[in-house]
Amino acid sequence: MGEVIVVTSGKGGVGKTTTSANLGAGLASAGSRVCLIDADIGLRNLDVVMGLENRIVYDLVDVTSGNCSFRKALIKDKRFDNLFLMPAAQTKDKTAVNPAQMEALCSEIKDDFDYVLIDCPAGIEQGFRNAIAGADQAVVVTTPEVSAVRDADRIIGLLEKEDLREPKLIVNRMRHQMVKHGDMMSIDDIIEILAIDLLGVVPEDELVVVSTNRGEMVVLNNNSKSGQAYRNIVRRIRGEDVPMMNLEDSGLFDKIRRIIGLK
Amino acid sequence: MPREAVNIKGTRQGLVILFDADQRFEDIKAGLKYKMDSSRGFFIGARFTLYGSNRLVPTQIKELEAICAEYGLIPDPDVPWPPGKPKQSRRVESTPLKRPLPGEPTLLVKRTLRSGQVITHPGHITVLGDIHPGAEVVAGGSVLVMGTCSGFIQAGAGGDTTTCIMALTIFGAQLRIADKTIGVSDKRPPGSPLIARIKKNQVVISEYEL
């Protein structure tokens, strides 16, 4: 039986959907059977990010309201045979589904998969309650901004209340250079405020925007730092012990020193 | 779905409005308003008492009574509950103990309070953890925080000006004792615990000395 992991943040625009898509693709490329559920009813994006928009026939609301079986609504990914997407409905809103229906759906789906990732909508209202209803574990995504961290704190409190204890943290869009100059919160600052375990740090990377717009996932790009960060997170989710990546921008000098073996 | 926060029972002497004190105060308030709205004036002129309010602070009880009064109800603490012989309700844990305990009733909170979390208690509150920005602690008595205090802390919520707020560090917080408020934005260098008390009609923070 699989594990249901909800990807949430409270604040919008911190990278929940991007993280969901990349972790899904990463886990699938590592050989796990993965199902992504887009719980953002009315504002669906996950299908766009994955480049599967034009394949949608049935959606989440069709399944929860009994119009079709969940297998019929699942869309198989273009790249991996073991990656599936349950798209959200676009013409409905969050009240079209209730937490009990989501719980029933998750417990049905997780028998068929190793991992079920739920892309949670922003906010703390019904959409959030739906998304976390069937989850066994939670991943909280934040960016190194005070407002995002504050919202993450609130979300962690709400997750605890719903018995999703010990959520894991992903810090997205980290800019090491700014931290070095004291213009951005450091990982240590964020961990001290939120007091939860760190799952990974994803550096700011233009490639994320490029690949997202093309319906590709940066995790599959072997030449990008953000892709490497996502791959590390995937390995940690799969139970491997991977050390945190060194995000320091290595200058030309460092590169030369590394080549000649001084570092 | 969550359990109903408010239940209204009719007795021969009047109405008894029962609360689930485990729910958020905002939910209780909303639940009460909803019940009153859906009664369409049926309760006008009825006598009522609040039950389950022993875990609310006086200001909250007043707020609830005000909502009821808006809909034409008359408060009457003499409406008995449970009706007939006083049989034990399911809320056994909150009934006072027979033998007197030393000290005063205090709620011990063994966790960090995160943004949006609220703890209220008519007696004292001790928190073994931090109070994050956006969290609230409201006590009828004093508040002791064994950690960093950055949220909203109120002591003496019923108007008791002899209460105090103590914490290991305080910054980015708003402290209120009775009806006097102080904002604390600066971070002091770590030292002895801090105590906030009312002195000369305003809240004063000083280092705590035994």
List the main descriptive attributes of the protein structure presented here:
heterodimer; A: 263 residues; alpha/beta; Rossmann fold; eight-stranded mixed beta sheet; 12 helices; B: 210 residues; mainly beta; Pectate Lyase C-like; 2 domains; five-stranded mixed beta sheet; 2 helices
List the helices and strands and how they pair.
The complex is a heterodimer of chains A (263) and B (210).
Chain A: E1 3-8, H1 16-29, E2 34-38, H2 46-49, H3 60-64, H4 70-73, E3 75-76, E4 83-86, H5 99-109, E5 115-119, H6 126-133, E6 137-142, H7 146-161, E7 168-174, H8 176-180, H9 187-194, E8 197-203, H10 206-213, H11 225-237, H12 252-259
Parallel strand pairs in A: 1-5, 1-6, 2-4, 2-5, 6-7, 7-8
Antiparallel strand pairs in A: 3-4
Helix pairs in contact in A: 1-11, 5-6
Chain B: E1 6-10, E2 15-19, H1 25-39, E3 47-51, H2 58-70, E4 74-75, E5 106-109, E6 118-121, E7 124-127, E8 136-139, E9 143-149, E10 152-155, E11 165-170, E12 173-177, E13 180-184, E14 194-199, E15 202-207
Parallel strand pairs in B: 2-3, 3-4, 5-7, 6-8, 7-9, 8-10, 9-11, 10-12
Antiparallel strand pairs in B: 1-2, 11-14, 12-13, 14-15
Helix pairs in contact in B: 1-2
